[in-house]
Each structure stands twice: as C-alpha cells, then as structure tokens.
Amino acid sequence: MKKKSIFLIAATATLYFNNAYAQETPQDSAKVSSIDQIVITGNSNPKKKIESSTAISTFSSKEIQKQNPISAAALLQRVPGFAVETSGGEVGNNLFARGIPSAGAYEFVQVQEDGLPVFEDGALQFANADNFFRVDNSVNRMEALRGGSGSIFATNSPGGLINFITREGTNDFRGTAKLETSTYGLMRTDVNVGGALVQDKLFFNVGGFYRTDDGIRKTGFKANNGGQIRMNLKYVFDKGYVKVYYKKLDDRNTFFLPIPLIQNGNKLKGFPGFDPNYGTYSYRAISQLNIPQAGGGFFNRNLEDGIHPKVDVLGAVFKYDLGNNFTVLNKTRYTNINMNYTGIFPAGGPQMAADFAKSNGITGNNYQYSLVGSGGVVDPQYVQKLGFWAIDKQMNNFVNDLQFNYKFDKGNVTAGFYKSNWKSHQYWNWSNILTTASDRPELLNLVDTSLSPSDVGYSKTYNGVTNMTFLQRDTQTQGSLNDLYVNLDYNITNALSVNGGLRYSHDYYKGNFANTTSANLNNSGLTTDGTHGFNTTTADDNMSVLGNKYTYWNYNVDKVSFTLAANYKINRENAVYARFSNGFRSPNEEAYYNYFSNPNPDKPLKSVTTNQLEVGYKYYSRTFDIAVIPFYSTLKNLSFTDVFSDGKSENTFANTKNYGVEVEGFARLFNNILEVTFNGTIQSPKYKNLEAGSVLEGNVVRRMPKFFFNISPAVNITKSWRAYVSMNYYGKRFQDELNKQTLPSFTEFGAGMSYQLGRIRFAVDGTNIFNTIGITEGDPRAGSPNGDGIIMARPIMGAAARASITLDF
C-alpha cells in the first residue's frame, strides 16, 4: 500500500511539471463563486450568503464531486466548527459542533434532507443520523449551519443544521453516470437523470447508487454492500408548485471499533500481531453467533450483516401564493426504518492469557486454551474479550412543517407550526466472546484442567462465548413534538438588516421497557457438546431473561428558544454580523432509560440549554472568499450517557463553556492556476461545575480538539488536467473528563488528480496516503482509561486509492 501511495504522489508531481499552466478558468474548477450564492438553511427566505447573518458553509454538487468524500462524515470535515470522527467507516460516525461534547452521534445538530430531518432525533441509541443517509449524485448541494438560528428552524439542534438538498428536474434533460473502483475491492455505480415530462410544468429526477467493497480494514467479507434510490416529481402552476418524492435505502456497512495499540506519550505504534491501519476485530472467523436462550429457542446473528438499515421515505412539498404578499409552504414526510445492527465492541483491552484465566477462577497453570474451529490446543500470550452486540430497531417518523410568509417593503415575517411524531422500538441481545488478541482473530475455548469435563465449572466458554446473552433490552421511546415558531427579517437600510426568531416547543416523550431477570441453562436439558450439560460451563451463569412486566415513563418539555442578529453589508463584497442565540436539547434516549431504571430525585432529568454569541466578518469575491467568526458558548445540564461494555450506563451532568474562532476561505490565484480551500477552528472548551467533583473544574472537554483545520490546494495544470493535495490536522484531545488519557494530534494527507475529456471525467483520489496512525477516540465503553502502554483506540483508515469515470449527458 505504501508503494501505491508513493506512486500516487509521484504521478501528481509528474503531471505538475510536464504540463503547461492553464490561462483561463478550467472546466474542472472546484469552487463556485460565493458572492452570488443563495442559501436557504437557517433562513426564513432564500437570501445571498453575504446577507445572511449566519455561520454557514455551502458545497455545490461540483465541489462534492471534486472532494469525492468516502462518507457523509468525511464531507463534513470541511466545515469549520465541526469536529468530525470518521474512523467508524462509512456510517456510525460522530460530529461535535463548536465544542459541545456528547457520547457521540449527531446529538446537537440535525441532519436534514430538503429541510426536514432524516430522522427527528439523530442520536438515538445505535441510530446515528448518518446510518440513514448517503451522499450520491442525486445531491445538488449541502448547506451546513453552525449554531445561530438552528434552534429556531429545527428541534434539538443548538449546534447547527446540516441540510442536503437534492436535485430536481429542469426543462433540459440531463444526467450523470459514474463508475468507481478502488484498492479495497470497491465496485460502485452512481446514476442520476432528470428533465421535463411537460415543458415548464412537470419535472422529474431519479438517482441513486449501488456499491460493494471489501473495506479498507480487512474483514474477510464484504464490508459494505447495498445502495439507494431517490426520485421526485414536481408540478409547477401559476401560483406555486407541488412536489412528491420517495427514497429507498437498503445498505449494509461494517462498523469499526477500537483496536489495541501501544502508546508512549504522543507516539503510537501497532500492538504485536495487529496492523493499526488495516486490522480489525470484526473478522469473518468470529462472525457467527448461535446460542440457546434461557427462555427457549436459539439466538442467531451474523456479523457480516453489520449496520443494515432498510429505509423508506415518502414526502411532499406544497407552495402557493395566497396573494397580498402572503405565501404558504407545507413540507411533510413519513419515514420508516427497520435496522439490524451487529458489531464487535471490545470489552476492555487484551489480557495476558494467565491473567484472564485467573480472573475466571482458574488457579495456577491449570488452564488450557483451544481453537473453537479446529479444537487444537494453543498457548496465546494475550487473549481478547469482545462484545458481540446485536440490536434491532424499528423506527418511524411523521413530520409536517407548515409555514406562512408575509413580505413587505422592508423585509418579511414567517410563522409556522411544526409537528413531529416519532417512535423507536429496540431490542438488544449482547454476548461476550473470547478470541486471540490479533488481526484476523480466532475464537477460543478455555477450560480448567484441574477439573474433569463432567465437573461443574470445567469450561469457561461455550463455543468461544464467555457470557451468553448477558444483556437483553426491550424498550420503546416515543416523541410527540408540537412547536410554534416565528422569524422576522427587517431591512433598516439597504446595508443594515436585523433578524429575530422565536420557537416554542411543547414536546411529549414517553416509553417503556421490559424488566429482566437472570437465569441459566443448567436444567434446560441442553448439552454443550452432545454429552455434557450446561452445569459444566460458566458461560450461561448470568443470562438475561425478559420479563412480562414493564416500566412506563413520560417526560414533558416546555421550552422557548430565541435568536437575535444584525447584518451590515459594507459593500457588495464585505459584510459583518453579530448573533445571540439561546437553544436546548432534550434528554436523549439512553438518559431516559438510565434515569427511569434508577430514579434519583437529587439528579432530575433536565434539558441541555445553550447560549451562544458569535460575530463574523465575511468577504466574498470572484477570486477570494474569507469568513472569520469568533464565538462564545455556554451549556448547562449537559448529560453524558455512556454505555459501558457490561451494558450498564451512567448519567453524569456538567456545565461547559467554550470560546473560539472559525475561519473558512477560498482563493483562486495566478490567473486561476492555483486554487486553495481552507477551514480551521481554534477553541477552548472546558468543564464548569462537573458534578463528579471540583477537581474537574477547568479541564478540557473530552474528545474535543482545541485546534483542527483542513487545507486543500489544487493546481489547474491545463484546462483539462487538475491535481490536488489535502491536509487534515486534528489536534490533541483527551479521552476522558479527568484528562488522563491523551489522544495525540495527527495529520492526514490525501491527494488526487482528474482529467476532463469533453463530458467525461477521469479521477484518482487517495486518502491517508502516508498511512498515518491517527486515533479519534479511545474506548469510551471501558470507563476510566489507564494512559500509556497497551490502549484501546479507534484509528482512522489506512492508505487507500479510488479511481472513477464520470459521464455527464
């Protein structure tokens, strides 16, 4: 792989030195001028970017094509203020907005498609918003808003809004088709076509993708396999339009979790027998689980299914001019999701074989390990306990956003009612397995040689399973959101405008969960090997059994969010703005379960409240863009709801404060020969009044870098040839609130080139071309970390390259 990386760099350099410079704007230019860009996200009406008093980043379909992100999270790395962890694979990644910490997912931002949420809550347990969204050629552009008016135009989004706007048909029939392959077995095709069925009246667009690949980390099976299709019809009439659309997603993705590494201060290296760039515990040899249940029957699971959502979305948009400067807009959507989620979650780090045997009650050297597959006796130095976690989720969401807009000479006012009903029903069945602590792990059995095979407790495993179904959950959570909002834009002068917004949230949450008991299989009549009963193994000693009694709960939210801003347009190219906003985030799904399982009046559930102040300077021209946005934010009642490897969770509450500066820009230099895009964030997120003790006062918020940036220079070698290099820097962080375990800074480089031949585009894109070992998180399921030595952490993917051919027609 290193040879491939070197070849990619050498090819880029050769193209640079052996071709003439372009003397005009190339066909393949990566950036559309921002000076006339119109934005809609976080605004009551479309307006020019320079006139919007928001911190907003925009990416056109052409820019997305040039970046060719491997996932939605990879694209969002280009947004300042968003600290994004991409090490989970194509899905299941984490985004932290403006230093707001959480257990992960998209807890304080809302991910939208065409102005409505992908799912109302983007941080349900094991249901990160990016599980249900894929970037393909049917995306027309993306707008990412930080802070600001996010809380006015969406729920639970004080950190911001991410809006993917899909393509619609026009009078001209147009389409694009793309084929892509890679160094890791990728075969992908994207197609999008759109046009008019009736000129000026009826338009259509259909697009989607299908993809299969082996994964950058070597799983031994197809790590990613599936696709999606989007389609819409739009009918335009004299006073408005109506649009209906449908999306089907059926995709399967492997979720990658922490692996063992050796840490010495800021230096990282691979654990013996484990490749940090390409290794994973999620491997074919341990992919099958088949265990009897204490309540009867068997539980079967296949790791190769990974994260497998089946998503159906049906929606409509209606806009009508009522006359007298009044307009009505109604957006509605129904989403149904069935997801099977299977992943390997480490239960701590590798252990010496003798230590693990001792912890399971075996004295001295009276232990023996053997391979489950062959039965051969082995003598491993280290062994690894892994969680085999299976989660099934059935989710649905109906949402309707009705708004009225009135335009007057000096501005406009928008008032609306937002209604959303959602439901999540989930079932968990978790077991622990024992494997070799290595790449391509193998299942192990462990027995006590001081006993005979018929003795009680002789075996500590059952076909490699150390804890059979040690945790079950059957829970339901429902939300009913009833929100009123109003937003006013007023132009005091041609240069000075003000904006104010208010949202009243009257939201209801309720749910239930089955109570559980413990049991074993000793009297089940089943055998472990055809001869011996389950009393000879300890693997079934504490099996979880769902009861027929349920605990019911409910929780209500009555909160007001508001924002106030002013924008001063100095001239056509310069503007300054200031904004104050107040928003909130309701307790998350795990917080409800945790609290109502163990109610504590001294620690009542509360919504997280935020206050944010930001000021900004924007300069947009045909050749240079810059936005500099200092910000300050405070949070109260921030809840950390970590789920540990033993299935227990905790609620820890804190207050935080953060101040920083976001910078974003673009430059087209030397007569369009050189293009540079860049973004960066400097911040200082710290804890205040963390309940665990004053010793944490002033500590840096966990998993949050103080400094991170991305810069990507591109050279238009000729009118057709283009080459680029990207550099992504992620600063030092701490895994824990105590700031004991350091997550070292790292720099990831990418590079690529493209050639435009008429309507055909050839491209090669390389990621992490120097095979950097960069970790985005430690092991949040292991409790307090130990620091240096053998650690568990989740590194970014190793070096990889993709090649594509795109035809526009």
TrEMBL record:
Annotated compartments:
Cell outer membrane
Boundaries of each TonB-dependent receptor-like beta-barrel domain copy?
A: 275-765
Record-linked SUPFAM superfamilies: Porins
Q: From which domain of life does this come?
A: Bacteria
Q: Cross-referenced Pfam families, in alphabetical order? A: Plug, TonB_dep_Rec_b-barrel
Alphabetized InterPro entries for the sequence: Beta-barrel_TonB, Beta-barrel_TonB_sf, Plug_dom, Plug_dom_sf, TonB-dep_rcpt-like
Q: Which residues form the TonB-dependent receptor plug domain?
A: 49-160
Tell me yes or no: is Cytoplasm among this UniProt entry's keywords: no
* Signal peptide residue numbers: 1-22
Member of which family?
Belongs to the TonB-dependent receptor family.
Spell out the protein name for this chain. TonB-dependent receptor
